[in-house]
Amino acid sequence: MFSEDELLPLSALQHLLFCERQCALIHIEQAWEENRLTAEGRVLHERVHAADDESRGDVRIARGLRLRSLRLGLIGQADVVEFHRHGDAWLPFPVEYKRGKPKTGIFDTVQLCAQALCLEEMKSVTITAGALFYGTTRRRLDVVFDQSLRDQTASAADRLHRLIERGLTPPATYEKKCDSCSLFSLCLPKSAGRNKSAMAYLNRMINA
């Protein structure tokens, strides 16, 4: 179990699984740049969180719900949690909003599963499924929280803690996905070199 002081942002799981170097730049070196893609995502989340909670028959909708798991060492905020009535119980169903279209990687599904695991710990319930809502398609993609996804999520949380504890930014390795990353100009994947901090590299260039 982790202490309150050891909790890491739940959203960092997506950064980690997309690119460990990106995750380290954001959460170790405190580097950030925004581009069109990140701005669109930020605006989408702000709109979702700004809406009021509501009830629709056997469904109650909570927005911006705070989440925490001492087992995984994570803290964060859900976009939407629907509480569905099952008899006398209200079972959570997390819904995460994403810009763009469904992706081939697991980073979105792991982030959603982490929200579910937080809710399970907080509410002492079992959550079998949730959904990802994509802004481009305007459709939900249902996600089943099977054991494989739960194990991947727990493994990602462990990797995140080990990365932050080491405090070292992984070396830059250029891939096609780098072109759409908002941190491209800070990461410098084509020129920063192996085992070098992007911030240290930029400081040397400025002071040269």
Overview of this protein structure:
The chain has helices spanning 12-18, 20-27, 36-50, 107-123, 147-166, 184-187, 198-207, and strands at 8-9, 54-56, 59-63, 66-69, 74-77, 80-86, 89-98, 129-134, 139-144. It is globular. The protein is of the alpha+beta class and 208 residues long. β7 (89-98), α4 and β8 form a beta-alpha-beta unit. The protein has one domain: Alpha-Beta Complex (Lambda Exonuclease, Chain A), CATH 3.90.320.10.
Topology, element by element:
Blueprint lengths: L7 E2 L2 H7 L1 H8 L8 H15 L3 E3 L2 E5 L2 E4 L4 E4 L2 E7 L2 E10 L8 H17 L5 E6 L4 E6 L2 H20 L17 H4 L10 H10 L1
Parallel strand pairs: 1-5, 7-8
Antiparallel strand pairs: 2-3, 3-6, 4-5, 6-7, 8-9
Helix pairs in contact: 1-2, 1-4, 1-5, 4-5
Structural class: alpha+beta
Average pLDDT rating: 87
Share in β-strands: 15-25%
Which radius of gyration do the C-alpha atoms yield? 18 Å
Secondary structure: number of strands: 9
The largest sheet is:
6 strands, mixed
Number of domains: 1
Distance between the termini: 46 Å
**Overall 3D geometry?**
globular
CATH class: Alpha Beta
List the uncertain runs.
none
CATH topology (level 3) name: Lambda Exonuclease, Chain A
Helix/strand order, N-terminal first = EHHHEEEEEEHEEHHH
The total count of helices amounts to 7
Strand arrangement, largest sheet?
Answer: 2-3-6-7-8-9
CATH architecture: Alpha-Beta Complex
The helix content, as a percent range, equals 25-40%
